[in-house]
Design goal:
single chain, alpha+beta, 5-stranded antiparallel beta sheet, 1 helix, 22% helix
Length: 149
């Protein structure tokens, strides 16, 4: 029994490593396209069914900064679905960033990704958004769509 449990743990760790490698490769490709780099330590990864097949998929919120030598940053949402036991990129889109809004991925429920947001009020200085809110995104037809509340 112990050997079987060890095998299951090893297979799970191998799949997790393979999934992490897929996510890393995707983000590295985005860095090279925008000539920026990922902000370290703030990537958020949440698992949950996003396409209605009952299999946990992966949503990743990451931030690219320093694009084209600027001090700008953009928060991106990327979605990866499970296809035949492997994680495959399904869609990605910018969802936040400097002078736009701050966004935090908080979970997945019923095929919907849930976010907390902080938007800019008209009177806010450029550094500091103050309007707290929420938003949702869904994977639909191979694209990410925001469901405004």
């Amino acid at each position: 029994m112990r050997g079987l449990l060890l095998a299951v743990v090893c297979v799970g760790a191998l799949a997790q490593d393979r999934d992490s490698a897929v996510i890393e490769r995707f983000i590295r490709s985005q860095e090279s396209e925008g000539n920026g780099h990922e902000a370290k330590g703030i990537r958020t990864i949440v698992k949950g069914d996003l396409n209605g097949d009952g299999i946990p998929d992966t949503a990743v919120l990451y931030t690219l900064e320093g694009m084209f030598g600027t001090n700008n940053y953009v928060q991106h949402l990327a979605v990866f679905v499970q296809v035949k036991g492997r994680l495959v990129h399904a869609a990605h889109t910018p969802v936040g960033g400097k002078y736009y809004r701050a966004i935090e991925l908080t979970g997945i429920r019923e095929n919907v990704m849930l976010f907390k947001t902080t938007d800019y009020a008209e009177s806010d200085p450029r550094c500091c958004p103050s309007m707290e809110g929420t938003t949702k995104y869904v994977l639909s037809g191979g694209a990410l769509k925001e469901l405004r509340e």
